[in-house]
Specification:
α1 links the parallel β1 and β2. This protein has two domains: 209 residues, Rossmann fold, CATH 3.40.50; 81 residues, Tyrosyl-Transfer RNA Synthetase, CATH 1.10.240. With 311 residues, it is mainly α. It contains 13 helices and five strands. Bound molecules: adenosine-5'-diphosphate and tryptophan. The site of tryptophan (TRP) has 13 residues, from β1, α7 and β4.
Protein backbone atom coordinates (compact mmCIF):
# COMPACT_ATOMS: atom_id res chain seq x y z
CA UNK A 1 0.00 0.00 0.00
CA UNK A 2 1.26 3.49 -0.81
CA UNK A 3 1.77 5.96 2.00
CA UNK A 4 -0.19 9.17 2.26
CA UNK A 5 0.46 12.02 4.65
CA UNK A 6 -1.32 15.30 4.96
CA UNK A 7 -1.02 18.14 7.44
CA UNK A 8 -3.61 20.55 8.75
CA UNK A 9 -2.74 23.83 10.39
CA UNK A 10 -5.04 24.03 13.39
CA UNK A 11 -5.97 27.62 12.80
CA UNK A 12 -9.63 28.20 13.59
CA UNK A 13 -13.22 27.34 12.87
CA UNK A 14 -13.66 24.96 9.94
CA UNK A 15 -15.78 26.38 7.13
CA UNK A 16 -17.52 25.02 4.05
CA UNK A 17 -14.47 25.86 1.90
CA UNK A 18 -12.25 23.66 4.09
CA UNK A 19 -14.87 20.92 3.99
CA UNK A 20 -15.27 20.71 0.22
CA UNK A 21 -11.64 21.56 -0.52
CA UNK A 22 -9.77 19.45 2.04
CA UNK A 23 -11.79 17.42 4.57
CA UNK A 24 -14.21 15.65 2.24
CA UNK A 25 -11.53 14.73 -0.34
CA UNK A 26 -9.47 13.25 2.50
CA UNK A 27 -12.35 11.11 3.75
CA UNK A 28 -13.09 9.86 0.27
CA UNK A 29 -9.58 8.52 -0.33
CA UNK A 30 -7.63 7.92 2.88
CA UNK A 31 -8.56 4.24 3.12
CA UNK A 32 -6.87 3.50 -0.19
CA UNK A 33 -3.52 4.33 1.44
CA UNK A 34 -1.60 3.83 4.62
CA UNK A 35 -2.64 7.27 5.82
CA UNK A 36 -1.32 9.77 8.30
CA UNK A 37 -3.16 12.92 9.30
CA UNK A 38 -0.94 15.36 11.14
CA UNK A 39 -1.99 18.42 13.13
CA UNK A 40 0.75 20.90 12.27
CA UNK A 41 0.83 22.71 15.61
CA UNK A 42 4.47 23.81 15.25
CA UNK A 43 3.66 25.33 11.88
CA UNK A 44 0.77 27.17 13.52
CA UNK A 45 3.21 28.58 16.05
CA UNK A 46 4.73 30.73 13.30
CA UNK A 47 1.63 32.92 13.52
CA UNK A 48 -0.42 31.93 16.59
CA UNK A 49 0.80 33.12 19.98
CA UNK A 50 -2.17 32.25 22.20
CA UNK A 51 -1.57 28.93 23.96
CA UNK A 52 -5.21 28.26 24.88
CA UNK A 53 -6.30 28.96 21.32
CA UNK A 54 -3.68 26.67 19.82
CA UNK A 55 -4.68 23.82 22.11
CA UNK A 56 -8.38 24.36 21.40
CA UNK A 57 -7.75 24.49 17.64
CA UNK A 58 -5.89 21.17 17.72
CA UNK A 59 -8.70 19.51 19.70
CA UNK A 60 -11.32 20.93 17.34
CA UNK A 61 -9.49 19.87 14.20
CA UNK A 62 -9.37 16.28 15.44
CA UNK A 63 -13.08 16.42 16.31
CA UNK A 64 -13.85 17.73 12.82
CA UNK A 65 -12.07 14.89 11.05
CA UNK A 66 -13.64 12.23 13.25
CA UNK A 67 -17.08 13.81 12.82
CA UNK A 68 -16.86 13.72 9.03
CA UNK A 69 -16.02 10.02 9.12
CA UNK A 70 -12.28 9.44 9.54
CA UNK A 71 -11.62 6.28 11.53
CA UNK A 72 -8.62 6.82 13.84
CA UNK A 73 -7.84 3.11 13.62
CA UNK A 74 -7.40 3.36 9.87
CA UNK A 75 -5.51 6.65 9.79
CA UNK A 76 -2.73 7.66 12.18
CA UNK A 77 -3.88 10.97 13.61
CA UNK A 78 -1.19 12.81 15.54
CA UNK A 79 0.22 16.14 16.64
CA UNK A 80 3.42 17.25 14.93
CA UNK A 81 4.86 18.39 18.27
CA UNK A 82 4.37 14.95 19.82
CA UNK A 83 7.04 13.55 17.50
CA UNK A 84 10.10 15.72 18.29
CA UNK A 85 12.05 14.00 15.51
CA UNK A 86 10.23 16.29 13.06
CA UNK A 87 12.05 19.37 14.33
CA UNK A 88 15.28 17.38 14.51
CA UNK A 89 14.98 16.33 10.86
CA UNK A 90 13.95 19.85 9.87
CA UNK A 91 17.27 21.12 11.22
CA UNK A 92 19.20 18.53 9.23
CA UNK A 93 17.30 19.46 6.06
CA UNK A 94 17.86 23.18 6.69
CA UNK A 95 21.56 22.39 6.55
CA UNK A 96 21.11 21.00 3.00
CA UNK A 97 19.35 23.96 1.36
CA UNK A 98 20.40 27.54 0.78
CA UNK A 99 18.99 30.83 2.01
CA UNK A 100 18.14 32.07 -1.53
CA UNK A 101 16.19 28.83 -2.12
CA UNK A 102 14.09 29.39 1.01
CA UNK A 103 13.62 33.05 0.10
CA UNK A 104 11.65 31.93 -2.97
CA UNK A 105 8.99 30.17 -0.88
CA UNK A 106 5.53 31.77 -1.31
CA UNK A 107 4.57 31.82 2.36
CA UNK A 108 7.66 33.83 3.23
CA UNK A 109 7.63 36.02 0.09
CA UNK A 110 3.97 36.98 0.53
CA UNK A 111 4.51 38.08 4.11
CA UNK A 112 7.52 40.19 3.21
CA UNK A 113 5.67 41.65 0.20
CA UNK A 114 2.91 42.81 2.56
CA UNK A 115 5.53 44.62 4.60
CA UNK A 116 5.04 42.24 7.55
CA UNK A 117 7.88 40.97 9.64
CA UNK A 118 8.52 37.26 9.06
CA UNK A 119 9.95 35.29 11.95
CA UNK A 120 12.73 32.74 11.36
CA UNK A 121 10.19 29.94 11.87
CA UNK A 122 8.20 31.14 8.89
CA UNK A 123 11.38 31.32 6.86
CA UNK A 124 12.25 27.69 7.68
CA UNK A 125 8.61 26.54 7.41
CA UNK A 126 9.15 24.57 4.16
CA UNK A 127 11.89 22.43 5.73
CA UNK A 128 9.70 21.52 8.70
CA UNK A 129 7.03 20.51 6.22
CA UNK A 130 9.62 18.56 4.22
CA UNK A 131 10.60 16.76 7.45
CA UNK A 132 6.92 15.89 8.12
CA UNK A 133 6.65 14.32 4.70
CA UNK A 134 10.06 12.65 4.27
CA UNK A 135 10.08 11.12 7.75
CA UNK A 136 7.50 8.50 6.77
CA UNK A 137 8.64 7.66 3.20
CA UNK A 138 5.46 9.30 2.00
CA UNK A 139 4.35 8.62 -1.57
CA UNK A 140 1.49 11.10 -1.90
CA UNK A 141 0.67 14.39 -0.20
CA UNK A 142 -2.86 15.74 -0.72
CA UNK A 143 -2.74 19.54 -0.58
CA UNK A 144 -4.54 22.64 -1.79
CA UNK A 145 -2.90 24.39 -4.73
CA UNK A 146 -1.32 26.92 -2.35
CA UNK A 147 0.81 24.16 -0.79
CA UNK A 148 2.06 22.60 -4.04
CA UNK A 149 5.32 24.53 -3.90
CA UNK A 150 6.05 23.22 -0.41
CA UNK A 151 5.85 19.63 -1.65
CA UNK A 152 8.28 20.56 -4.43
CA UNK A 153 10.57 21.88 -1.71
CA UNK A 154 10.31 18.54 0.09
CA UNK A 155 11.33 16.75 -3.11
CA UNK A 156 14.26 19.08 -3.52
CA UNK A 157 15.37 18.58 0.09
CA UNK A 158 15.16 14.79 -0.35
CA UNK A 159 17.23 14.94 -3.54
CA UNK A 160 19.86 17.18 -1.92
CA UNK A 161 20.17 14.84 1.07
CA UNK A 162 20.30 11.73 -1.12
CA UNK A 163 23.04 13.26 -3.26
CA UNK A 164 25.10 14.17 -0.22
CA UNK A 165 24.64 11.02 1.85
CA UNK A 166 23.26 8.31 -0.47
CA UNK A 167 19.70 7.14 -1.13
CA UNK A 168 17.71 7.77 2.10
CA UNK A 169 14.48 9.59 1.35
CA UNK A 170 11.70 8.86 -1.09
CA UNK A 171 10.72 11.80 -3.29
CA UNK A 172 7.02 12.49 -2.59
CA UNK A 173 4.36 13.57 -5.07
CA UNK A 174 1.73 16.18 -4.40
CA UNK A 175 -1.91 15.35 -5.06
CA UNK A 176 -3.42 18.74 -5.77
CA UNK A 177 -7.04 18.88 -4.75
CA UNK A 178 -8.47 20.63 -7.76
CA UNK A 179 -11.59 21.94 -6.06
CA UNK A 180 -9.50 23.70 -3.50
CA UNK A 181 -9.67 27.18 -4.98
CA UNK A 182 -13.31 27.07 -5.85
CA UNK A 183 -15.66 27.39 -2.87
CA UNK A 184 -16.84 31.01 -2.86
CA UNK A 185 -17.51 32.90 0.35
CA UNK A 186 -20.50 35.08 1.23
CA UNK A 187 -18.99 37.97 -0.76
CA UNK A 188 -18.24 35.89 -3.88
CA UNK A 189 -14.47 35.85 -3.25
CA UNK A 190 -12.75 32.60 -2.23
CA UNK A 191 -14.14 31.52 1.14
CA UNK A 192 -11.40 32.15 3.71
CA UNK A 193 -11.08 32.92 7.40
CA UNK A 194 -8.89 35.84 6.51
CA UNK A 195 -11.65 37.49 4.45
CA UNK A 196 -14.36 37.03 7.10
CA UNK A 197 -16.70 35.60 4.45
CA UNK A 198 -17.15 32.07 5.75
CA UNK A 199 -20.06 29.77 6.42
CA UNK A 200 -19.10 27.60 9.42
CA UNK A 201 -19.31 23.87 8.76
CA UNK A 202 -20.34 22.94 12.28
CA UNK A 203 -22.38 26.03 13.07
CA UNK A 204 -25.80 25.74 14.66
CA UNK A 205 -28.82 25.92 12.37
CA UNK A 206 -29.17 29.62 13.27
CA UNK A 207 -25.51 30.40 12.60
CA UNK A 208 -25.68 28.71 9.21
CA UNK A 209 -28.91 30.59 8.40
CA UNK A 210 -27.39 33.91 9.41
CA UNK A 211 -24.25 33.34 7.29
CA UNK A 212 -26.35 32.32 4.27
CA UNK A 213 -28.56 35.42 4.59
CA UNK A 214 -25.37 37.52 4.44
CA UNK A 215 -24.43 36.18 0.98
CA UNK A 216 -24.07 39.18 -1.28
CA UNK A 217 -26.50 39.08 -4.20
CA UNK A 218 -26.58 41.16 -7.33
CA UNK A 219 -30.06 42.69 -7.40
CA UNK A 220 -29.99 43.11 -11.19
CA UNK A 221 -29.99 39.40 -12.04
CA UNK A 222 -32.91 37.02 -11.59
CA UNK A 223 -30.78 34.24 -10.18
CA UNK A 224 -28.34 35.02 -7.33
CA UNK A 225 -25.06 33.63 -8.63
CA UNK A 226 -23.21 33.57 -5.32
CA UNK A 227 -25.99 31.60 -3.65
CA UNK A 228 -26.20 29.17 -6.56
CA UNK A 229 -22.42 28.61 -6.59
CA UNK A 230 -22.51 27.35 -3.01
CA UNK A 231 -25.81 25.50 -3.40
CA UNK A 232 -24.54 23.34 -6.27
CA UNK A 233 -21.88 21.91 -3.96
CA UNK A 234 -24.41 20.95 -1.31
CA UNK A 235 -27.16 19.43 -3.43
CA UNK A 236 -27.61 17.67 -6.74
CA UNK A 237 -27.27 20.28 -9.49
CA UNK A 238 -30.36 19.26 -11.48
CA UNK A 239 -32.59 19.75 -8.43
CA UNK A 240 -30.99 23.12 -7.78
CA UNK A 241 -31.49 24.24 -11.38
CA UNK A 242 -35.21 23.54 -11.12
CA UNK A 243 -35.48 25.35 -7.79
CA UNK A 244 -33.76 28.45 -9.13
CA UNK A 245 -35.77 28.44 -12.37
CA UNK A 246 -39.09 28.35 -10.54
CA UNK A 247 -38.04 31.03 -8.03
CA UNK A 248 -36.59 33.73 -10.25
CA UNK A 249 -36.11 36.94 -8.31
CA UNK A 250 -37.12 35.31 -5.01
CA UNK A 251 -33.80 35.57 -3.23
CA UNK A 252 -35.15 34.86 0.21
CA UNK A 253 -36.74 31.58 -0.95
CA UNK A 254 -33.53 30.22 -2.45
CA UNK A 255 -31.41 31.40 0.49
CA UNK A 256 -33.78 29.67 2.94
CA UNK A 257 -33.52 26.51 0.84
CA UNK A 258 -29.71 26.72 0.84
CA UNK A 259 -29.55 27.18 4.63
CA UNK A 260 -31.89 24.19 5.09
CA UNK A 261 -29.85 22.06 2.69
CA UNK A 262 -26.54 22.90 4.41
CA UNK A 263 -28.12 22.16 7.76
CA UNK A 264 -29.47 18.80 6.55
CA UNK A 265 -26.04 17.86 5.17
CA UNK A 266 -24.26 18.87 8.38
CA UNK A 267 -26.76 17.62 11.00
CA UNK A 268 -25.54 14.01 11.29
CA UNK A 269 -21.87 15.12 11.37
CA UNK A 270 -22.67 17.81 13.96
CA UNK A 271 -24.39 15.24 16.13
CA UNK A 272 -21.42 12.91 15.92
CA UNK A 273 -19.04 15.78 16.67
CA UNK A 274 -20.95 16.67 19.83
CA UNK A 275 -20.57 13.11 21.08
CA UNK A 276 -16.74 13.27 20.98
CA UNK A 277 -15.32 14.16 24.40
CA UNK A 278 -11.97 15.78 25.21
CA UNK A 279 -10.84 12.42 26.60
CA UNK A 280 -11.67 10.74 23.27
CA UNK A 281 -9.55 13.27 21.39
CA UNK A 282 -6.65 12.95 23.83
CA UNK A 283 -6.72 9.16 23.48
CA UNK A 284 -6.76 9.35 19.67
CA UNK A 285 -3.78 11.73 19.70
CA UNK A 286 -1.86 9.60 22.19
CA UNK A 287 -2.33 6.42 20.14
CA UNK A 288 -1.46 8.24 16.93
CA UNK A 289 1.69 9.75 18.47
CA UNK A 290 2.89 6.34 19.59
CA UNK A 291 2.50 4.87 16.13
CA UNK A 292 4.11 7.87 14.43
CA UNK A 293 6.98 8.06 16.94
CA UNK A 294 7.90 4.44 16.38
CA UNK A 295 8.21 4.93 12.63
CA UNK A 296 9.99 8.26 12.98
CA UNK A 297 12.55 6.86 15.39
CA UNK A 298 13.43 4.02 13.00
CA UNK A 299 13.97 6.51 10.18
CA UNK A 300 16.00 8.88 12.34
CA UNK A 301 18.39 6.15 13.36
CA UNK A 302 19.33 5.78 9.69
CA UNK A 303 19.51 9.52 9.16
CA UNK A 304 21.70 10.14 12.22
CA UNK A 305 24.11 7.44 11.10
CA UNK A 306 24.28 8.87 7.62
CA UNK A 307 25.10 12.39 8.77
CA UNK A 308 27.60 11.04 11.29
CA UNK A 309 26.25 11.99 14.69
CA UNK A 310 25.83 8.41 15.89
CA UNK A 311 28.89 7.46 17.90
P1 LIG B 1 -8.38 29.76 5.13
O1 LIG B 1 -8.23 30.35 3.75
O2 LIG B 1 -9.76 29.90 5.65
O3 LIG B 1 -7.32 30.26 6.09
P2 LIG B 1 -6.79 27.40 5.07
O4 LIG B 1 -5.76 28.10 4.24
O5 LIG B 1 -6.50 27.10 6.50
O6 LIG B 1 -8.15 28.21 4.97
O7 LIG B 1 -7.20 26.06 4.31
C1 LIG B 1 -7.16 24.78 4.82
C2 LIG B 1 -7.51 23.82 3.70
O8 LIG B 1 -8.81 24.10 3.18
C3 LIG B 1 -6.55 23.92 2.52
O9 LIG B 1 -6.31 22.63 2.01
C4 LIG B 1 -7.29 24.73 1.50
O10 LIG B 1 -6.92 24.39 0.18
C5 LIG B 1 -8.75 24.37 1.78
N1 LIG B 1 -9.61 25.54 1.50
C6 LIG B 1 -9.64 26.68 2.19
N2 LIG B 1 -10.53 27.56 1.67
C7 LIG B 1 -11.07 26.94 0.59
C8 LIG B 1 -12.05 27.32 -0.39
N3 LIG B 1 -12.67 28.49 -0.36
N4 LIG B 1 -12.36 26.43 -1.36
C9 LIG B 1 -11.76 25.22 -1.39
N5 LIG B 1 -10.82 24.81 -0.49
C10 LIG B 1 -10.47 25.65 0.48
N1 LIG C 1 1.62 23.82 5.47
C1 LIG C 1 0.37 23.12 5.38
C2 LIG C 1 -0.81 24.12 5.35
O1 LIG C 1 -0.68 25.20 5.82
C3 LIG C 1 0.18 22.19 6.55
C4 LIG C 1 1.22 21.12 6.59
C5 LIG C 1 2.25 21.00 7.47
C6 LIG C 1 1.32 20.01 5.69
N2 LIG C 1 2.96 19.89 7.21
C7 LIG C 1 2.43 19.25 6.14
C8 LIG C 1 0.55 19.59 4.59
C9 LIG C 1 2.81 18.10 5.48
C10 LIG C 1 0.95 18.42 3.93
C11 LIG C 1 2.06 17.69 4.38
O2 LIG C 1 -1.86 23.78 4.88
Amino acid sequence: MQRLLTGVQPSGTTHLGNYFGALRPFVSMYKEYESMLMLADYHALTTLKDHAELRENVMNAVRDYIAIGVDPKQATIFQQSSVPAHTELAWILECQVTVPFLMQAHAYKDKVAKGLEANAGLFCYPMLMAADILMYDTDVVPVGIDQKQHVEYAREAAAKFNTAYGETFKEPKEMVLRDSATVPGTDGKKMSKSYGNTIPLFGTKDEIHKAVMAIVTDSKGESPENVYAIHRLVKDESEIATLYKSNKGKYKVVKDALADDIDAMVAPMREKRESISDADVIKILKDGAERAREQAEAKMEIVRQKVGVTI
